[in-house]
Amino acid sequence: MPTLLAFTPHPDDEAYAFGGLIALASRAGWTCHIECATYGEHGERHDGGPLNPNALADTRATELEASCRILGAEPPEFWGLPDGELRFHRGEQQRIASRIRAFEPALILSLGPDGVYGHPDHIALFHWVTQAWDALETVKPPLLYAAFPKGLFLPQYEKCLPMLGELPTPPREAIGAYPWHYTVPVTSAAQDKRAAIAAHRSQLPAGEPEALFPPGIIEALMPEEHYADATGSLSNVTAALLETLIGG
After folding, report:
1. Torsional sign, CA 164, 166, 167, 171
2. Does the reported pTM lie above 0.90?
3. CATH 3.40.50.10320 assigned to 3-247
4. Do the Cβ atoms of 53 and 41 come closer than 8 Å?
5. Other CB atoms closer than 10 Å to residue 135's CB: what's the count?
6. Which tens digit of pLDDT belongs to each residue from 130-162?
7. How far apart are CA 203 and CA 210, in angstroms?
8. What is the C-alpha to C-alpha distance for residues 217 and 241, in angstroms, rounded to an integer?
9. Could you tell me the residue ranges of all domains in the chain?
10. HEC secondary structure over 53-78
11. For a pLDDT cut of 90, what percent of the chain falls above it?
12. For residue 34, which phi and psi values (nearest 5 degrees)?
């Protein structure tokens, strides 16, 4: 059966960004792999557990494993890179290329160029995945970037401005500004997607999935997911591939 390979910077990015598509692919018999660059050990903690980074890393690894089970994915692979510092690393393109060669995926998923809400780790991983994919000497599998409606994540962007610095990159107007090529209805997988978000309990105030981001964002992500093609244009072959998952 075909393989789906998703690259994420932190535990929980898999769930809100492409949890629906992963669940659909798993239901269709695909083997789904998630590669996670960090343990998210420097984020906030909301479940009352210990705050030291090692303890939080263990918790978030367990949570991502639970999310993968819910979505029907294989146990995740962690790279163990330091949370919040991906932009300072070099050479990760080789790691990504080796994963692509090993799994020979029919489909690759990643976050897009705006980092969803400008998160530097998200943007660093986007560049690594894109560069590794561009350098492939074999036939390139489709690479899709999770895309979101313009303005949807601006409240989260505003919340994260202290992390982005005095001259934030990307600028405010770039958030959600790139067009998508494919829309995937995921209503049939919405229950699994919400449960996968809920699995990341340590990141959720009061344990509520809707509390992951400012009000209205999670609700907006449930009916459908949008993806931009790395080639910059719609591919009929990729569109047909996605249709088989929707139909399944």
Report:
1. positive
2. yes
3. yes
4. yes
5. 12
6. 999 999 998 899 999 999 999 999 999 999 888
7. 11
8. 28
9. 3-247
10. HHHHHHHHHHHHHHHHHHHCCCCCEE
11. 92
12. -120, 125
Place of tokens 């139909």: 247
Report the distance separating Cα 14 and Cα 225, nearest Å: 12
C-alpha closest to that of 183 among 213, 220, 223: 223
pLDDT of residue 166: 67
Q: What pLDDT digit, counting tens, does each position of 181-227 carry?
A: 999 999 999 999 999 999 999 999 999 999 999 999 999 999 999 99
Handedness of CA 180, 136, 25, 15 (dihedral sign): negative
Give the CB-side neighbour count of residue 15, counting CA atoms within 13 A. 28
Q: Which helix (H) or strand (E) holds 225?
A: strand 224-229
CA 225 to each of CA 85, 137, 145, 151, 159: distance values in angstroms, whole numbers, following the listed order: 28, 30, 11, 15, 23
**pLDDT class for 236, splitting at 50, 70, 90?**
very high
**Which residue shows structure tokens 């992951």?**
212
For residue 216, what are its two tokens?
Answer: 């209205």
Query: Cis (ω within 30 of 0) for the bond into 209?
Result: no
Residue 163 has pLDDT above 80, yes or no: no
Q: Convert the pLDDT of each residue in 6-25 to its tens digit.
A: 999 999 999 999 999 999 99
3-class SS of residue 89: coil
Residue with tokens 């609700």: 219
Summary mean pLDDT of the chain? 95
